[in-house]
Amino acid sequence: MKKVGIVLLVVCVLMSILTFSIFGFDNNNKTEETSYEQVNNETSQDNEDINTVNYLQKNTVLKEHNMDFKEFEENAVSIIDKQSAIEKAKEIVGSQIVNESEKFSAVLTRYTRNDMKKLPDSDIVLDNYPTWVVTFYGVNIEKQGPKLSGNKNKSVYADINVFLDANNGKEISVISHTSSLSKK
User: Fold this and answer.
1) Could you give the residue ranges of the DSSP H alpha helices within the chain?
2) Alpha helices in 24-58 (DSSP H)
């Protein structure tokens, strides 16, 4: 009986993630935009620059999902520039998330997904693939799936990572997880 309950919980969590990535957020809630300059030089609580590959490498949730990040060569040129990547990520998550996020970062990296080398329905191989990772920190995401006993919270304080192809700006994936920031 315990195994059935665990399987159901895992299925519900996976369905929630799938629903989040398919339907996204309501893009029509607010019209204000947070400018990149407002958060460009912000740092995490441990004073490490959030706009670095090193910061991504230290993210334990991304590590647990078999993701690896390497420095993008200084002389290499991304077809999609940083500001374009940020604007595309804002479109993907919507104005509600953009306005609610405490800060965000954009990192150009060589991205490897060790447990899923080939992107489904694509010729893209995620092995040192040029990728922009735009992260929105400290947002409240409405919970999906079953209500766990004793937990009355209707939302999760989270970070949202938008992975974009640095060659064309197309979305590779969106991953959210418990925030690395302390809730205010």
Assistant:
1) 2-23, 36-39, 53-57, 60-64, 82-93, 95-100
2) 36-39, 53-57
Say if residues 174 and 160 touch (Cβ distance below 8 Å). Answer: yes
> How far apart are alpha carbons 147 and 143 in whole angstroms?
9
- Using alpha carbons only, give the angle 175, 178, 181 rounded to the nearest 5 degrees: 115
Pick from 156, 159, 114, 112: nearest CA to 131:
112
Threshold 0.85, pTM exceeds: no
21 three-state secondary structure? helix
Q: Which of 71, 93, 174 is nearest to 139 (CA)?
A: 93
State the Cα–Cα distance between residues 156 and 133, nearest whole angstrom: 21
Question: pLDDT tens, 59-70?
Answer: 888 888 889 999
